[in-house]
Amino acid sequence: MIRKGLITLFAYYFDHVEIAEACSCNETMRRLMKDEYSHLVLDMAFTDGTVLEILPNIVSLYPRSRIMIFSMQPAGAYRRALKHYGIHYYLSKTLPEEGIVRLLGQFLNDECVVSEETDPRAEDNPFSLLTARELEILHYLLKGMGSNQIGDILNIRYNTVSTARTHIFVKSRTHNITELFELATRYHVT
After folding, report:
1. pLDDT digits (tens, 9 = 90+) for 165-175
2. Stretch (H or E) spanning 134
3. Predicted structure pTM score
4. Is the same domain home to 91 and 24?
5. Count of beta carbons in the 10 Å neighbourhood of residue 42
6. CA 65 – CA 20 distance, rounded (Å)
7. Full domain range(s) for residue 56
8. In Å, what is the CA distance from 183 to each residue of 20, 44, 94, 121?
9. What is the CATH number of the domain that holds 133?
10. Tens digits of per-residue pLDDT, 87-140?
11. End of a domain among 119, 143, 161?
12. CA-CA distance, 178 to 185, in Å (whole number)?
């Protein structure tokens, strides 16, 4: 529904824009291989993973594409990881229509945009210290997956997952998965 709403906004306010949509990481990469896109609006979470799993490939293979993240996830938690990939456009799904339209216009016109943060706790977000890889692993930890499962999904070794898991606990100042889940819930990170 949210994708359809975004498409409607594009059609109404930006009539010169051609739109294609994808609902998964795999479908997104397939579409990018078939067609060239000047601008990409990507959600943080897809049905088969997170945007952080495909961003390295997108940035590497399509360096001229401008990228905006459009998500319910708090920007503060992902700012560091996104800047690592050169992404400066982040649009919260909770913004009112006027704000969304204004930021989409700035994005489409390649205007420099000052990040708008709707959550006053963003600067204190304990997840803002996590690297992109740690955020990927956090996503799967919060889904209740174990280190072996996460390693298989991300195609990384168990040791890498275990080390990242330890870093996540240290950086978030949590001691176990229950505390981590409660903290993620408090900060709306999923």
Report:
1. 999 999 999 99
2. helix 132-142
3. 0.76
4. yes
5. 19
6. 14
7. 2-119
8. 36, 19, 20, 13
9. 1.10.10.10
10. 989 998 888 999 999 999 999 998 876 554 444 444 578 898 999 999 999 999
11. 119
12. 11
Please indicate, yes or no, whether residues 109 and 19 belong to a single structural domain of this protein.
yes
Among left, alpha and beta (phi > 0; psi -120 to 50; other), residue 155 is left
DSSP 124: G
Type and span of the H or E element at 56: helix 51-61
Between CA 138 and CA 48 the distance in angstroms is 15
Residue at token pair 């001229």: 64
Q: Are residues 113 and 133 in the same domain?
A: no
Burial bucket for residue 96 (CB in 10 Å: 0-12, 13-18, 19+) = exposed
Question: 33 vs 62, 121, 124, CA distance in Å?
Answer: 10, 39, 39
CB of 121 within 8 A of CB of 75? no
CB atoms within 10 A of CB 102: 15
Q: Which two tokens stand for residue 185?
A: 């819930």
Q: Which of 99, 119, 139 is at the close of a domain? A: 119
Same domain, 143 and 84: no
* Token reading at 56: 């390295």
Residue 176, Cβ density class (10 Å: 0-12 exposed, 13-18 middle, ≥19 buried)? exposed
- Three-class SS of residue 189? coil
Distance CA 104, CA 69 (A): 11
Number of domains in the chain: 2
